[in-house]
Structure formats: structure tokens, C-alpha cells
Amino acid sequence: MDRNYSRDLLEAIQKADRAGANAVVDAWAMGRSFHRVIPELLAPTLETFGKLWAQGTGGVSLATGYVASKVAEDVLSRLLLESASRETPALPAKGPVLVGNVEDDFHPLGRKMVAAFLRAAGWEVHDLGVDIGPAQFVDMAEETGARVIGASAMMFTTAKNVAKLRDEIDRRGLRGRLQLAVGGAVFKLRPELVEAFGGDGTAASAAEAPALFERLWQQALTFEPAPGGMRP
Amino acid sequence: MTLDPPPPRCIACSIFRREIESLQASGALDLAVDYLPSMLHMVPDRLDTRLAASLTEAGAQGQEVLIAFGDCCGHMEDFRAKPGIDRTEGINCCEIILGREAYRRLRREGAFFLMPEWALSWRQVFMSQLGLLGTNAKTFMQEMHTRLIYLDTGIQPVPWQALNEASEYLGLPVEVLPVSLDPLLASLREAARSARRHDDR
């Protein structure tokens, strides 16, 4: 009987077993092109994991979420290494997009996980780090041509600073053309804050961020087409 | 003749228990205090529920309330905005103890803080609550932080054994930072005054 690699990978992630997860990836890659690992194994598994995470079921903890993002990074690193040796692109280029923790927010985990899942989904991600002011976000978006900013805030106090970022985007006349994705614990606990603080969308888990960014990127393009060469 | 209003009731995180008791014992603080378990920080929706119940109970008795917590649950700022209620200023217990500038500077440097109560229950926090077992604990902490800082409030002896075990398990060096209780006291007093001002509006 054929091995169910996706189920085995999911189980390893749910046990927060990074080495075990990578062993499943290795076993899958035997006799297959490693270039297929993301669309055929990793992405569908992370999608299932993301649903369990969003539902709060399936034994998903901080540790399992973290391990899932590390597995995504591990796969991407190997893919990039292999692509470099073959001189072929690892993934279709999407983006660029930005992620960062808003001003006064020093909780990097969620942001780092989002960045890992986005990169594994083929996005060019500029990770700005923690405690990023509104002007810094928007300056960097203008500099890089990013159409989506992912702003992370853990608590209500810091989530209020998302509203300042919204104001900065609007003040520069970029509303619509530059979409604002928001995330973090407080938005999960109080989804009404997404709209209240001016977010254009959120995802129930970091694993679902790629789908959100895809949707927001398309939304941004309806306001103004992207310059040549920049598209997902 | 008008009587002075009674001091507000304080609902505090147990992370501050020993420090508040010390301030009470020294006569610096005259407050009746109820404590909620600090481990509720790990389950914010449960903290929301427990705190709402405590505030409702206090409100039924007509008491002003001072919340000695950081912004640790989704509705903390809604609670704070109600008449007769205010909260200690600070994002979390560490900022309340350290003050804003020191907290921001040390967080920017990658510090992970251990308050005295949590230093003793680090296994529960990292292993049971966060599920960080084996190599994941080190990888995770080393990726997010540069060092552990124990905030020594001077109430109890520095728990060196627990700190060394946490340092070994989490793969980060540990420092002990002596801190004054003055910022906590000032924050409690200001929140108590402010809870009253709410009523004056």
C-alpha cells in the first residue's frame, strides 16, 4: 500500500517533531523531483494544519505552530540550494510583500511564522522586525513596490497602532493599492478589531497567511495594475 | 460631615503578590487586594472571563477597582474604560515593574524576562503551556531572544537553581537585574487615583 506522506508529515508536525517531519519529506523525495515537494506535499499538509490550528483542534500548540514554520523553512532552504545548483528558479516569484510587528510590539513569533509560510508559498518577503512605526512600513512599501503589508500585534494596546498605520497609508493616498493584512493574538480573540483598526483582512492562523496575501494582492491590483515583472 | 471614600479594591495578577504584600507591610500601600492566578496569562479568554466576573462582583458592591495587570487579555482596555475602574500603566507585568523606557530598551536587545513567581514555575510555562520540549525549546528561544533576565524585586532570595536549570534548558544565558518596587507602587497609586477620577467625570 502507498504511504500517506501528507498524513505522516502532519502527524510529525503535530508532535512538534521537526526531525521526524524532515524525515517524511526525505522519504517522499526519494525518486521524485524535490521541486514538487511544496505543491504536492508541503502546501496541502500545511493547509490541513492551518485549518486545525484555526479551529483550535488537532493538538496545535505554540510549539507545533513553530515547528510547522521551521519545517517550511527547512524545505525552502533545501529547495533554494537545489535550485542554485541547477540555476533554475526555486519557486514562482510573488510579491514583494512586507511583514513587521507594529510600534511597541515586541512579540516576533507570529510574524516569523507568517514570513516562513509566505516564503514557502513563493512570496518574496521583507521582514522588517519588531516595533516598526507607520512611516517605516509605508516608506519600505513604496521603496520595494510591495502591495501588501502584514502587520502583527499581540495585544489590544499595540493593536491600536495598526490604526496609525492605516492612517499613514491613507494619508499618502495608497488606500486600496497597498493592502493591510493584520494578525496576532488579539485579532483572533476579537475579530471585530480588524475592521475597527483599519485592516483589510486577517487569517485565523499563520499557515493561512499565504491565501490571505494572495487575495489581498489581487485586491490591490484592481486599484492599479502592477508594474511589469511584479506579480504573483 | 463627609466621609473619605474607602480605598479602591485591587484585583491583581498573582505575579505581583509578594511585591504588593511587601508594599502593604511597609505601610506604603493601603488596598484590599484579590489575586487571580498568573497562569491565566497563558489563556487570555479565560482571564477575560475571570476578570469580568471579579469586576462585576466589585461593581455590585459599589467599589472602585484598580486592576493590577498588563494588557493581558482581549478586553482589558474595555474594562479599564469603565467608570470607577483603572489599570496599572504598562503592556505587561515586566513593563509595570521596569518602567516603559527600560522595558523597551531591554526588549529591543532581545531580553526575555522572568518575574520571581514565573522563575519558579518556568517548567509549567515552557513545557506544559507552550509545549516546548527537547531541542525545540532551545531553537525557539535562541531564535527569539538573546538572554533571560530575572527581575529581582528583592522580596525573596534569587532562585539560582531554578534560573540555572531554565538557562540550561532554554539555551540562553541568565542575568539578574535588581529592580525597585517604586515604579510598581507609583503605578498602583496612580491607577487608584485615576479610578476615582473616572467617577468624578
Task: Give a quick summary of the entry.
The complex is a heterodimer of chains A (232) and B (201). Chain A is of the alpha/beta class and 232 residues long. Chain A has ten helices and four strands.
Residues in helix, % of chain B:
40-55%
Residues in β-strands, percent of chain B:
15-25%
Mean of the pLDDT scores of chain B?
Answer: 92
The helix/strand order of chain B is EHEHEHEHHEHHHEHEH
| Lateral strand order in the biggest sheet of chain B | 2-1-3-4
Helix content of chain A: 55-70%
Inertia-based shape of chain B: globular
- Spans of at least 5 consecutive residues with low confidence of chain A: 228-232
| Number of β-strand runs of chain B | 7
Radius of gyration of chain A: 18 Å
The major beta sheet of chain B can be summarized as: 4 strands, parallel
Structure keywords:
heterodimer; A: 232 residues; alpha/beta; four-stranded parallel β-sheet; 10 helices; 56% helix; disordered C terminus; B: 201 residues; three-stranded parallel β-sheet; 7 strands; 50% helix; 16% strand; globular
